[in-house]
Amino acid sequence: MRKTLLVVERIVLESLEVRARGLDELTEQTGLSGSLLRAVLHQLIERGMIKYSDFSYELNWENKENWLPIVRDRLGVKAEIKELFSSLVNKSFEDLQNTPSQHLKMKKIWLEPSEQVELERKIKDIDLFLEGIQERRKRKPVFEKTCGKKVIFYGSCAYQDLVDDMLKAS
Amino acid sequence: MSLLQKQTLDSFIKSVGKKTLNDYSEMTGIERTRLFRLFHGAPMKLTEFETLQSFLFEKGGEVIDWKHVVAQRQLKEQSRDQKISADLSIQIERSQRLSEFLEDLGQRRAA
User: Fold this and answer.
1) Which of A52, B15, B17, B52 is the most buried (most CB within 10 A)?
2) For residues A162 and A169, is the Cβ–Cβ distance under 8 A?
3) Which residues of A touch B103 (CB under 8 A)?
4) Where are the domains of chain A?
5) pLDDT category, A96, cuts 50, 70, 90?
6) So what's the pLDDT on residue A115?
7) Per the CB < 8 Å rule, is A4 touching B90?
8) pLDDT above 70: residue A98
9) Are B80 and A168 in contact (CB < 8 Å)?
10) What is the ipTM of this complex?
């Protein structure tokens, strides 16, 4: 079975997507400890995803047909999202005597049709806001730290559909 | 209620229309109280299934292709099991690889 991309591997690739970087810069960008980062880099070189030259690591674009499908693999991405979300839930519950912190909010709420429409409009606004930022960055880049990016989840689903999915899996 | 039972009862009602349990009982020879239980999820006996299938056949109603229904259910369960297996295998693979990274780290620090 093809290996999927781990979160620690993806953060390195995301950092190198911008440009080639040396080890110190990658340490700063990814927030990974020196030895873990070296282990991850070694793996990524073995898999032909990155290469090392002139004291820098960079994405191995000559070999992209072999590794891009791994990066985009749906099941791999699904597993990563589950892991990231699980970490968000853990972080939200780890402080303040079982009171969820400001990290995560979840609401179960009955919406009338007009309220559903308004919610979808507001979510669309958030989408446009974030897409606007991404467009601005392309025209006017700022210093970015890969590990400092905000991971934002949003989405909603009917309660029953979530329960049904959990039941299907058991 | 199994899919086969539901389809059989639905086909029966579609064929004869909405009537009272007494009417259904007279048509099929199945006791009224037993019909009530069947409609409310009690497992159908094979003899009852045969009775209803014969009734549907004689009256020109939609006879249930039970082999097809059973095969569909098997496919659905296989696909669900495969999906669960795929998700689970991926979780295990990822967990193992991450542990290997961290174990390597531990060993290097110890050395």
Assistant:
1) B52
2) no
3) none
4) 7-71
5) low
6) 96
7) yes
8) no
9) yes
10) 0.72
